[in-house]
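Suppose you are handed a protein chain with no further information: no name, no annotation, nothing but its sequence. What can you learn? This example shows the usual starting point.
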Amino acid sequence: MIIRKATLKDAQSIIEIQAHCFPKDESCSPQKMKKRIKSFPFFYVLEENNQIISYLAAFFSPVPGIKFSLLNQIKSLPETSEYVILLSLATNKPHQKMKYGQQILLYFLLKMSKSNNKVYVVCKKEMIPFYEKYHFSYRGIKHNSFPNKVWYELEWNGKEEHL
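A reasonable first move is to predict its three-dimensional structure. Written in structure tokens, the prediction is:
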């Protein structure tokens, strides 16, 4: 198993994983995915036997918490900040429940703990227990027009001893 920074060569595999894990109205276009791979400072893939199994995408935010409007401002996102938004964590369907998502999340959180970043994530209600296992704290409901659904926001405090 290898975890590494994503490249544009990985885009098709990442797009396929996204298509299997998220409804169309929650997915970005292939062009936007490529922009994210190029622009996001934290875009990792987990691969095994030269096959991408999981990916994680995160970016610096100028403000605490999730602001979906930032996704339309990729070019103007800060190059550093104490706030990091974990936008997407996905594992290919056949490999779910096999701890691949856990491995890439822990890799990311270890990096965040070394720089004392606060990490925010929004998820659906059924995913809250997954993130709580890694010491994310519930912050509240995030009403948003993306894509007009209720999201739940969680925050991670950045302590390595919680990993």
